[in-house]
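Final paragraph of the annual report: two paired records, presented back to back.
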Amino acid sequence: MSGPHLVAKAPRLIAMTAMTILVLGPLYWVTASSFKGRQEIIRNDPTLVPEDPTLENFRQLFTATDYPTYLTNSFVVALLTALLSTLVSVAAGYGLYRLRIPGNNKVAVLILVAYMIPGTLLLVPLYQVLAAVELIDTRNALVLVNVAFTAPFCTWLLRGFILAVPEDLDEAAAVDGAGPIRIMMQVVLPLLMPGIATAAMYAFVFSWTEFVFASQIVVSDGLKTLPIGLSAIMGQYTVNWGLLMAGTVCTMIPVILPFLFIGRYFVRGLIAGASR
């Protein structure tokens, strides 16, 4: 690379390096600390690499705490949220952006506006509604709340993918005698799989990390999800940093691994939804 080109690219390289350190630095520090002993974590001269790597923090996490219960609850709530949000958003997105229904554009705008309402403003009304139907302190309440907050964004996210499918395919299928449902299931839906995977991933991550509603709706220890459970592991007066770091690593893995495979579709969906 010639000198002028290197100088021209230097600001971008510096910015990319700084961004990489800012994003990956804390992740590395948490991961490295999870393999350190308690004294090595809290001593005054921190070590970048564990001097005596150990799996003791992970052993204690799964044998001496309720982390497996929190992990199971989070998986159940997040998977149900992803499934229901995907079903609702695909049906809503197909009806709003594909079928010629009077007023569909206005409804689409209302859905987007509903997504912009801060969730904390709805905390008290939602709690009262869930209490009235006796769903407080249940997983079903968490799933319903998470679906209510993720379905609008997932519907908007699918907009770009739906509009990218040529309508000529619908007309060709209709000429062959296919009805609206068959066109949706056999023609459009297979082409939306990257978008559907992206929407499901967003709903899963939202539910996996949701704290505000989970901390108010769920009371029983046996129903707590990971964000609430990790705060309980920290303790009221002392913090076992080894356990906390190990719990954080185990909590991040189910989110990071799928994103490595469908992250490009997620970015593409955001760009398509914003530009079309």
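The closing record of the year follows.
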Amino acid sequence: MKLVVVGLGNPVMSDDSVGIKTVRELAKKLPANSEVIIKEAYAGGLRLMDELIGYEQAIIVDSIVTDKYKPGTIIKSDLQTSFISRNLSCSHDLDLISALELARISGLKCPEKISVWAIEAKDIWTFSEMLTAQVSQAVPLVVQEIEQVIDGLVGNLTNMEPVPGTNRRQG
């Protein structure tokens, strides 16, 4: 199983960075020789598709602003049936769904399944490397949920021994 987990967002725009911060925390928990690849992406559309080519399955973590939920609410969905967050689409090129379709038509190997964890943001407009308190509280929950998905796909991470001096575990 070739699995990629992509944190999406702008690292200096407060809650917009929640995807990136989440995958950084997830990376600390994965074994050094993990089959799971963690990536950060700062743009959607065609540029995000570049991060997904060659993998069988993908998980994307991103912020979203729906104004329907409280900040910090976690929304999970498959890409095909879900909302499109601000970063999964791009007004200057193709949205991710269209970019994936173009890649498939071109014969490129794209993930068969793409799962999205979106976290309702409170503030995506302030220049800050800090998340708001409500959104920050969602990060460990999303990390835990994605760990469980990874456990089911590539093996049990919870039985792995900690690597001395790190937050990583090894089997």
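The two ends are 17 Å apart (CA to CA). This concludes the annual technical report; the extension proposal builds directly on these records.
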